[in-house]
Amino acid sequence: MFSAWEIVPLVLLTLDAWDFVKLTRSRCEVCGQAVSIPHKWTFYFLIAVGFWNFVGAGVFGFLINLPIVSYYEVGTMLTPNHGHAALMGSFGMLALALTVFALRQVSSYDHWKRMEKLIRVSFWSLNIGLALMVVTNLFPGGVL
Q: What per-residue confidence (pLDDT) applies to 65?
């Protein structure tokens, strides 16, 4: 039961991080200038943590714990499907969020502007690559 409910607080944290990202797109109510939040990509990685934890631990973790699935799936690709999505999605993205936070703190503004493009490409590449691995390789292999 605890394992099934573990995703609830992480989904709530993801929604909170999304509200913070929406704040970065707003304007100051007093002066009308754009709000400058230097850690936008850190929060994107934190949103990815919540998303992949929901998909990997929540959906695929719950799937492999169903009795009928557990009877047939021992030794199949459904377990690595759950493991890769949950581990890389949760802890891998969390480590990358911390890395991006630290890089932003020690970088000058000009240096960060050059690095930010690479961080954006790595964020989307990691998430799209993980989704493709799970959807096109591990899940179909586990079902077969």
A: 77
